[in-house]
Amino acid sequence: MRRYRGILRTLPVWLIILIFFVYPLGRFLLLPWFPHWAPESLGAASWPSDGWAALRNSVVLAIAAAGLAAALGTFWAWAMERRRSAWHPWSEAVLWLIFLMPSYLLTTGWEILFAAPILRHGFLHDGFYSPVGIIVLLAAKALPFAIFVVRPLWAALGHELTEAMRIFAVRPGRAVRVFLRLAIPVASAATVVSFIESVQEFGIPATLGAHLHLPILTYSIYAALSTSPLNFVGASRLALLLVVLAFSGALVQIALQRRFGAVLVHAQVRHRLPARPKRSEALVIAAMNLVVGVLVLVLPMLAIVRSAFQGGVSALRMADWDPVLHSLGFALLAASLAILLAWLFARSLVSGGVGGRAMDVFSMGNMAVPGLVLGAAYIMAFNLPGFSLYGGSLLLILAYTAATAPMLTRLLQAPMAQLDRSLGDAARIHGVSAWVRWLDIDAALLSRPLVRGWLLAFGTVMFELPVSELLYPAGKTPLGVAVLALNNGEHFAAAARLALGGLASVALVTVVVLVLLRFALPDYRMAVTQ
Amino acid sequence: MATAREWVPAVGAAHAGEASDGAAALLEVQALHLRLGRKTILRGIDLRLNPGEVVLLIGPSGSGKSSLLRAIAGLEPLEKGRIRLQGDLLDDGRGTALSPEQRRMAMVFQEHALWPHLTVEENVQLVIPGRSGREKTRALLERMGIAQLAKRRPHEISGGQRQRVGLARALAVAPSLMLMDEPLSSLDVELREQLRLEIRRWLRELGIGALIVSHDPDDLWRLADRVVVLADGRVVQDGSPQNLYDHPQLPWIARFTGAQGPFPARWEDGMLDFAGQGLKHPGFGGASGSGWLFIRPERVEIRGEAQRGLAAVLRHCAFERGHYRSYWELPGLSDTLVALSSSAPPAHARLWVDPQQLFFFPRSSQE
Amino acid sequence: MRKLIWILIPLLIVVAVWSFWPRQKPGLVFYSAVSYGPMLAQAFTKESGIPVRVVEMSTGALLARVSAQGNNPQWDVAWFDGASAAAGLQRAHLVASGIVPRDIPWTDLGKSLIPADGAWIPTGYTLAGVFLHPAKRPAPATWDDLLQARWRGRFAMNNPAISGPTYPQVAGWLYSHGGWPAGQSFLLALKANGMQVYPKNSNTIHALSQGEVDLAIVQSSAAYALAAEQPGRWAVSIPKSAVLLPRVMVFADHLSAKQRRDAADFARFMLSPKAQELAMRKGAPDGYYWPITRTAPTADPGMASTQSLPLINLDPAFWGARESAINAWFSSHILGQ
Q: Which residues form the ABC transporter domain (chain B) (predicted)?
């Protein structure tokens, strides 16, 4: 009986997962086998005409981008872990900004640059408007992920390994080979992560890919669902391919970790101060930081800012800021819902047992399902006779929530696991009611991770593109959709203005929230035992 | 600041489980089985606590002491058994159980478990329901002599002060039963003694029964009315501290109560073969065989060479708190035997141990 | 923490209310893929007092939305280019029939565009494909001229699967070269002569302005609009057998009587000379269309006269039904995917 009560308490969580994740995704991804589940489309073909080309292009582009990102990322991560350099704070900032910046903004910035007369012709322009350009952009977006995955690996590799090589005066040639043998598993992890990110990327195909008329998997899925005749079954097949690709990548990643993990177990982690870089290394590090920072962040942002102010202040005043306001509203609501949901999920995750393991599988599995597929699934799932959410703000917000909650759940996992269990036990034994416990103890102790998660969700939803494209309520255009439309029509100045407006809103909200947090919660530290 | 006060410890009942005046038990645990995951942690635990009694729960690591405490608190569900508090059924092992919030208990944790983002005052006030919380908190903190810490946060006060706050919080709920999980182990020796006295005082003053898990033999002598020993998930001895001292049921208990050993020995037909010499000994009720012998240093007498006893050579001697602690080498023994005397011992002597103070455990018993 | 929550919760409630509050019931919900739709809707509201909520979308997106909403339409009136698309909606029972207003002074061409069951109202037409090219350069006279060596790899069109108005152009080619599937050979020949295909008008025009191609086959309104924007740089030529692309208005099925009346008034207003004048003068780029009512102002003088040109008027039902099959064939055989 007691066991059932425990299950009853976790029932709401699993009900939510069933209704908002399993059902829509299941219904959508199983369409190829059950086509009658799709709403009556107007006689569309079941395999999108450019399906195979899209698959081929996506894989090739993603592999190339992954190779580039992994090569750069492996070295960069090594430099951040094993060498002391004044560039490190700049590196951290640059990588964070690249991670946060929406890819279509990056593309827009560069398109503005290449629209300038001097750059309009020439090999740089041609290079940008070619698969090479797509590969470079994809690699840039994947870079933070690659470095994030690789840094702990470098940190864990004991310094003794390289020091032993130096003490035993191993010949440079052999030393390089041994180093490579160490680096290869690390680089493989980076490659796989970059591949997964690149294959799921939507913003770059939607801007650059469309200009190049290069079919790419994510864009083809979107196209199948946003032009007439609607092709749900076709979109589903493509989505399945996408999920399988990402999933395979994840499996490879797990296998790599298992194989590589053995190496790490034998290494004793002793934290030593990293060495100063050699002259040649220092040059490369500086070059890397400058080139990536300038090319990926500074130049495009400058282009956007300059373009935005092109018409002067009057243009700013007359601009249509509605998309920014719409997205602000959506993001505020969705982020709040998402963080609450993630908290619920994370509690289940951390509590262990069967429920915890199931939640682990669920949140990891969701990483293989890009927001695009979730959005597509939501079109059908809640458009039932007599009960239709499609076309309304509610569905969009629910989709945003579902798209961001799994990522937030994993973010909350570590802080929640570190929460001292006895703090909760003390509350329960001394008769503190559940509500008071949640509010005054759990929420307060988790306030920083919760707020950080909220801000991350807010920024993500504010600039979100694929789900927005598929589900936005007519008349309430979100920011990403508006910018993309303007970008495609080559109205770069207007696009830049909206982008800047969005960035300013995010910055403002971030500042306000952090100030509120400071005001509401005094600074405290966990007591250190003597 | 609480001053140390002398009190006469209430000598616990000679036999476990008997109420001193026939009053109903405060806590009754019957045939408790507890499983964590796939492992059975506690088997068939029977335990009884009388009102106002302080019971110490000791045992080797992994014996399930903390788990028993958590089960009584309601933090772990029982597989089988019953728990009653003041006659009310808390858990019947079949799914009906009161939640921890409803059990009228309090707990003091090893790492104090104070909520780090709340002040001392807020930590205590949180557990007091109703509007008068603030006043009650103030009064309690005053009474315990820590009112000056009211506005500080846990990381701003010392370990001893934190534990006092933990105690205050526990007392604030006016519990029927106090549970303590190694409340003093994270403190240094001096603080431990201080806090031990304070705990003792509050429990006595408020007449609260307590179940205390401990690893510290000092708690056995200075805190407990009765001791329950857990080993391998079962109760192996339940009695007063004196009872444990005189009749330890396990080698572990013998050591915990200060005996030295194990020394290899052999028992046969009423004679104990130890250190190459025979000692007469009343029966152990077991078959002949080899085993382990435990001896209390305080019961080892140093006699002259001409007298009866075990021939021994002095290995080392140290002056310790007013007496001499000597280490003796005996033939056939790899370890030295410790003896205590009020004056410096000679280089050779005969050591005599009262057979009643020898504890022999056959080889088959748990080590 | 409580303080934070007491601030956040009211804020969220305010945002939620603002986000979800149903705006005052608008008279009509109007999905417009026509650039001057919002402007005319405003004028209509000013004149009639009936509020109209306009939502602008590209034709493809509009059709996708309408299809996805299925039998739970959130729109009342939709306006876009392409009779075959309207026929598709009608086949899927998503639009009302018999909506063509009476007493409209149609031209003969206009009358020929009215469907038998009155499921859509033609309001004008453009040409699905015309030649847009640099002003100084020549243009082909017929579609077949595109097969000449001088045009090898130097002309571009849109992808019919993505660009709404392009499918009728493809259908027109097929029609004038033997129908379906016989007309495939012409398209294959175009491909063999290096035809470039871009997703949409904007991409094709971009390629033209970058000099990647010398000739773009785009919708006439887009071509005239660009030529007017950059005078002297571009020229528009209409080939023989250009394909007529009607601009059609449809009503959602199951409108209430009042909504039906309002929609009818709306359609009438759009066909009125006053509205059409406004559209043509101020409604770029879609304002570059040819009218089909006798009382309408003449089309922009920069636009060629179509009276003497042979135009192809496709059967919407026939070609509409084959759209997905033809698009699929196009993608696999022309785009090589």
A: 27-257
Touching C: A residues 331-360, CB under 8 Å: 332-333, 336
- The residues spanned by each domain of chain C are 28-126+245-305, 130-243+318-334
C13–chain A Cβ distance below 8 A for any pair? no
Q: Is C323 on the interface with A (CB under 8 A)?
A: yes
CATH superfamily of B25-103+174-249: P-loop containing nucleotide triphosphate hydrolases (3.40.50.300)
- Give the nearest chain B residue to A424 (CA atoms): B113
ipTM tops the 0.90 cut: no
pLDDT per residue, tens digit, chain A (530 aa), is 455 556 667 788 889 999 999 999 999 999 888 877 776 554 455 676 677 888 999 999 999 999 999 999 988 988 888 888 888 888 988 998 898 889 998 998 998 888 888 887 778 888 888 899 999 999 999 999 889 888 877 777 666 666 666 677 667 777 777 777 777 777 888 888 899 889 999 999 888 877 777 889 998 888 888 766 677 888 888 999 999 888 888 888 778 777 766 555 444 555 667 778 888 888 889 999 999 999 999 999 999 988 888 877 777 777 788 899 999 999 999 999 999 999 999 988 887 777 888 888 888 788 778 888 999 899 888 877 767 777 788 999 999 999 999 989 988 888 888 888 889 899 999 988 888 888 888 888 888 889 889 999 999 999 999 999 888 887 788 999 999 888 877 778 888 899 999 999 999 999 998 888 887 776 665 544 33
CA–CA separation, A419 and A414 (whole Å): 9
The residue in chain C having the minimum alpha-carbon distance to the alpha carbon of residue A489 is: C202
C122 close to C246: Cβ distance less than 8 angstroms:
yes
Q: How many CA atoms lie within 13 A of A6 on its CB side?
A: 15
Choosing among 3.40.220.10, 3.40.190.10, 3.40.30.10, 2.30.30.30, the CATH entry for C130-243+318-334 is 3.40.190.10
Last residue of a domain, one of A284, A307, A330: A307
Among B residues 113-142, those touching chain A with beta carbons less than 8 Å apart? 113-118, 126-127, 129
Q: Which residues pair with B350 in a beta bridge?
A: B303, B311
- DSSP states of B214-273 as a string? ---HHHHHHT-SEEEEEETTEEEEEE-HHHHHH--SSHHHHHHTT-EEEEEEEEETTEEE
CB-based contact C4 A447, cutoff 8 Å: yes
Topology at the third CATH level for domain C28-126+245-305: D-Maltodextrin-Binding Protein; domain 2 (3.40.190)
| Contact present, C204 and C156 (Cβ < 8 Å) | yes
Q: Do A432 and B111 touch (CB under 8 A)?
A: no
Answer whether A228 touches B (CB < 8 Å): no
Instruction: Please give the residue of chain A at the shortest CA–CA distance from B95.
Output: A2
Chain A residues 402-431 within an 8 A CB cutoff of chain C: none
Q: How far apart are CA C80 and CA C63, in angstroms?
A: 9
The answer to whether A44 contacts chain C (CB < 8 Å) is yes
Is the alpha carbon torsion for A72, A73, A78, A79 positive or negative? positive
What is residue B365's DSSP assignment?
S
- Chain B interface disruption, residue of A354, A429, A432, A436, most B CBs within 10 A: A429
- The reply to whether residue A488 touches residue C71, judged by beta carbons under 8 angstroms, is no
- Angstrom distance (rounded) from CA C309 to CA C289: 15
- Predicted model pTM: 0.80
